[in-house]
Amino acid sequence: MAEGMLDFGLISDDARVRKRIEAIANEFDYSFGIWNDLEEFFEAEQHCKLIAFSVSADTSKEVAQKAAEAAQLAKAFSEEGYLISIVSKGLPRDEVEFIQKSGVNLVIPANEVIDTGKMDFFASQVLRSKYIPIKDTDIIPETELQFDLFHLMPLRSKFLRIAKKGRQMEPKQLERMHDVNEFYVLREELPGFKQYTEDTADDSHAGLLRRCRGQFLEFSGAYLSLVEMMCDDSKSVGFEEGRQILEDCKEMVTGLAQTLSQVSNAEVWDIINNSVIGEFGSVERMPAIAAYATHFSTVLDVEVEELVKMIFAILVMDIGLIMVQPTITEKFRYGKEAELTEEELGAYHNYPKISINVLANKKLPVEGDIKDIILLVNEKADGTGFPSGHPAERLTFESQLIRFCKNFDKASVLKTGEQRVDHGVKLKEIVEAQVKSFDEFQPTFSAKLKKLIPPST
Q1: Would you list the domain boundaries of the chain?
Q2: Helices (H), 169-279
Q3: Which of 135, 323, 340, 380 is positioned for an S-S bond with 385, CB 3.0–4.6 A?
């Protein structure tokens, strides 16, 4: 039996798929193994957190049958229980459902693995976002946990469960682990964590911060689940389910807005900036941008109904980036936008329309003004924006505030190897620069931004 556990295992004899997966694994530093077929894989006896396997056949029914059989065998070696079936052709929904009943989590055509960032995104969610960090101060001694609690063992890259749901953590136990500073909960148990923070809340300021962090983490987890659902073509969404998604979004945004209004600017920055999930790219920053928009909206007296529309637009507006060719998102991840080819730039400028198409394909009951916000966020007052190059008078308050939040997040996000940015100072710098410039925003909008500058700066 092979020693250790790999992040990513691929079973495929498709040269293009093998090359693409190897590139993903190398970029994101996943440990990985590639085998030509199931027999070779079984001989290796290698356990993996995620296993993807290619299936091809003459008919869709044969593809589904072979995928289901492969899933049953591969699941014994999938430590995290996550399987991806890479199929040679698009399949009817009933064939996809047949494959999923065998334990497959995602069915994706080979051409989408090669030509889009879907595999990059889903792999990052499985391998890097299954466990969500919380602070040691979020756990109150002698209170019953409503979730399993984990500790990361860095040398072994393994998460160790240190407390089961229903258990109480003793004061001495927490004191001994104080130096760790960070624990982890499963993403699917974030609602339980949020409920725990509410049940253990007190009137102290520390209690307020715990509650706010719990709300933001639940919001982030729900967002990633939403994106996964939107990008998974094998999952359909009915009108009623789509309506419930919008209602859940409204409830979370309202609660988050109320809590954020009670904490200081410095505390808002800390809660948002230190709660980043994932590594795919700008898509995962959307909860942070939504939280900034929520915070700024309370200062600018935006009505709750308008805020909810704005936040939902933020959550879905960059989904189209997952659908573009992977060389585009890779260049943006490494700040190499200037190296985009003319073809890549054209595809990038089209991504807001792709996001709209995804919403339409999922049949979400999205209002027209939300679609307008999505299409206007990347437009600029001087007419050089995209996708349509609209002039300043077409811009809306909502689209400009979202663009401002994206700019602020890009300038202030904590990056590896760089010093922490003073958010208050950075906010003042950006606002003062925008007031003097008319390239991006309408003058009337820029004037409103002055209200965002903290008095202390």
Answers
A1: 6-115, 188-457
A2: 171-176, 190-199, 205-231, 239-260, 265-273
A3: 380
